[in-house]
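A.,

Following up on our hallway conversation. Structure tokens first:
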């Protein structure tokens, strides 16, 4: 079938409105307004106000953690997490298959990023590749739980003990994920969450640092608050990373609905699996044993030879149909400036990461998606390979 047939098929099957890869889960507006009314009365908008403190406590209960510090975004939380170790120089090992914020915070700490390859099954940083890259300059390892799927936490714990290196997890995708009986964000020496609008759980902008001691929690608080200990005491260099009262209220209003949203996303996930799970050349993510997943993303990996068209062509055709899919994560962070200009950031080949980044595509995934909509997206994916141009 030729170009004209494809153009006509797209025109006949195009969604009338853009179907985005995600939509924020928002609470009932009246609930949010009830919180805001008290903020308006108090006129206390930031600086650890009442709702900020309440939100902090409710989050700790939900995540089953004892020490947590709220931030205005996840990037600053990760920046402060590394700053807690006060590294003066050296290298941090991480994955190239992630959002640029991960390596950027390493550079902002004055440290060198070293990228290592990923596991072909989990898409996460490969502990074996990491061990080959550890040198006397290595200061820490920053794995990312990509799509909320767990890294090999046992292997990384072993590397931490063997080489006396802290493991700081970028857990931006993991809200609502529980692995082997505890929150996925509670593994490692430190772990960072993001509450950005694209995430399963949102405060519009926001984030949190999960610590494992009161001392870490205390120091992280100072660092996010200009280094201020009290009205007349500054204990060191700090930055402004505080979450506002408005964001805390949005988080509090949304938190009770998180399990329902996860349940709705699970139904969407199951429809996707039933519709495209058997299409040649389409691979879906495998949920490991012991994981209560949050269904925050629906990535598919395309084998062009078996499927009939490559990832980029499927991307173009879906977008032409108003299905705004995303190439999470392309290009690799090792391919963007300034990292691509420094050969020392890649001590070993990134063959698997390259292959995954060139073949992955994230489909729309959120609880409001109707069964009809999901099935139509799947039909497009099923039908597109017949037009080979």
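Then the amino acids I'd put at each of the 389 positions:
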């Amino acid at each position: 079938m030729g170009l004209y047939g494809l153009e006509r098929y797209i025109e006949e099957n195009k969604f009338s409105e853009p179907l985005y890869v995600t939509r924020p889960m928002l609470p009932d507006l009246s609930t949010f307004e009830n919180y805001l009314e008290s903020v308006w009365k108090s006129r206390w908008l930031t600086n650890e106000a009442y709702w900020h403190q309440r939100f902090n406590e409710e989050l700790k209960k939900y995540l089953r953690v004892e020490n947590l510090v709220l931030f205005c975004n996840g990037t600053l939380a990760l920046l402060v997490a590394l700053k807690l170790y006060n590294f003066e120089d050296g290298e941090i090992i991480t994955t190239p298959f992630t959002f640029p914020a991960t390596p950027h915070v390493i550079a902002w700490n004055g440290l060198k990023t070293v990228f290592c390859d990923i596991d072909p099954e989990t898409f996460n940083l490969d502990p074996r590749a990491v061990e080959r890259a550890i040198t006397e300059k290595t200061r820490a390892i920053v794995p990312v739980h990509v799509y909320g799927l767990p890294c090999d936490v046992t292997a990384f714990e072993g590397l931490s003990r063997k080489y006396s290196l802290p493991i700081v997890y970028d857990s931006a995708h993991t809200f609502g994920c529980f692995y082997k009986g505890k929150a996925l964000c509670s593994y490692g020496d430190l772990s960072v969450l993001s509450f950005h609008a694209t995430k399963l759980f949102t405060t519009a902008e926001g984030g949190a640092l999960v610590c494992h001691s009161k001392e870490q929690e205390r120091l992280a608080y100072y660092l996010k608050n200009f280094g201020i200990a009290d009205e007349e005491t500054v204990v060191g260099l700090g930055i402004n990373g505080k979450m506002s009262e408005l964001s805390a209220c949005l988080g509090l209003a949304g938190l009770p609905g998180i399990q329902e949203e996860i349940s709705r996303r699970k139904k969407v996930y199951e429809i996707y699996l039933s519709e495209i799970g058997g299409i040649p050349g389409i691979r879906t993510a495998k949920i490991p044993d012991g994981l209560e997943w949050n269904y925050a993303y629906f990535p598919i990996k395309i084998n062009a030879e078996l499927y009939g068209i490559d990832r980029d062509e499927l991307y173009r055709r879906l977008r032409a149909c108003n299905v705004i899919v995303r190439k999470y994560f392309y290009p690799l962070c090792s391919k963007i400036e300034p990292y691509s200009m420094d050969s020392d950031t890649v001590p070993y080949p990134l063959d698997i990461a390259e292959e995954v980044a060139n073949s992955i595509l994230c489909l729309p995934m959120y609880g409001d998606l109707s069964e009809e909509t999901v099935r139509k997206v799947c039909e497009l994916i099923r039908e597109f390979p017949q037009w080979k141009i």
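The chain has a mean pLDDT of 95. Curious whether your intuition agrees with the design.

B.
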